[in-house]
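Tutorial, part two.
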Amino acid sequence: MTDLTYRPATPDDAAMCIRIRGMTRENAFSEEELRALGITIESWNTGIRNGSCPGFIACVKGQMIGYCFGDRNTGEIVVLALLPAYEGQGVGKMLLAMMVDTLKNQGFHRLFLACSSDPSVRSYGFYRHLGWRPTGEKDEFEDDILEIQLDHD
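Running the prediction step on this input gives:
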């Protein structure tokens, strides 16, 4: 894909991240639904600014098309979101790899995330194909908790 770039997230990205989260094909959350979960433009902006929620942004011709964020304190991959038109092109895989590398470089030996337990949902196969394994645990939404062990050379 031409004109595709990746960059670290900045606090100014928070509003667009929330907008894109509502435009994903599966597991979309509107701004109101995110707010009910305590996720607002302000809280996202703060997490980026203070480094507690680092992330990476994918852009085509300078316009955000997706992102991935992690939690520097827990090693959780908090969110990976991509506009539907860019699915299946390796963008999500690259964003995830960038976030995994960042958290690995911060010393984590294990990362985790919540993923749909429904095999018909794309994320179910996506993460498992990349080596993420079920822990047997579920989150409060009944999503599977997956983990990946990181090798440190």
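Residues 91-105 form the longest helix (15 residues). In part three we will examine how such features are distributed along the chain.
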